[in-house]
Design goal:
Strand content: 15-25%
Strand order of the largest sheet: 1-2-4-3
Helix content: 55-70%
Radius of gyration: 56 Å
Number of strands: 4
Order of helices and strands: HEEHEE
Largest sheet: 4 strands, antiparallel
């Protein structure tokens, strides 16, 4: 067995222990300070990221609302374009009908005004697209010929005047000529 003796005075020993304590307390303090700084940085970063996320969420909501607004506008524009096309089609139809109506009236006017002094009586008159079918009565063939010549003179209106048939018809004491003609315009 070995016995050790401590020859260092007690007062020096206490100072040495105190020095060691201050060093360990300084080291621990530094660690706590470092830990506090890192914790503050982490918490600050988390708060900053949360703030940024909320900001971007608000921006996203605003952009989505704006997108919906533009989608509604686009739907309205498509609807208005469709209505515009329908209105254009209606206008074209009306203009076409007006032209046809005016054209039919003009044809009818020429047909009636071409009678002039001729003794012609319309029995049946039908005007379709581009064709007039006329069934009429006249006193004689000369009246029929004069009427058809008067129609043929109207080259600006009529393309062709075709006599389909004629036959004599007796009505009471009168002998009349019934004729059918087809006129293209």
């Amino acid at each position: 067995m070995i016995i050790k003796f401590n020859l260092v005075p007690v007062s020096e020993k206490i100072e040495e222990e105190k020095k060691l304590g201050f060093r360990s307390i300084g080291y621990l303090g530094f660690l706590f300070l470092l830990l506090a700084v890192v914790t503050v940085i982490i918490i600050g970063s988390g708060l900053w990221l949360t703030h940024k996320e909320r900001k971007y969420q608000r921006i996203k909501k605003m952009k989505l609302a704006e997108l919906e607004k533009y989608k509604k506008i686009a739907r309205k524009v498509k609807l208005l374009e469709k209505q515009n096309e329908e209105i254009k089609q209606k206008i074209k139809t009306i203009v076409s009908l007006k032209k046809k109506q005016g054209r039919f009236l003009k044809v009818y006017d020429v047909l009636v005004s071409s009678i002039g002094n001729n003794k012609i009586l319309f029995k049946n008159l039908s005007i379709r697209e581009g064709v007039v079918s006329l069934q009429a009565l006249a006193l004689d063939l000369e009246e029929v010929a004069n009427y058809l010549k008067a129609l043929e003179i109207q080259k600006k209106i009529f393309k062709s005047v075709d006599l389909k048939n004629t036959h004599r018809k007796k009505i009471k004491e009168l002998t009349l000529v019934e004729f059918n003609t087809e006129i293209r315009f």
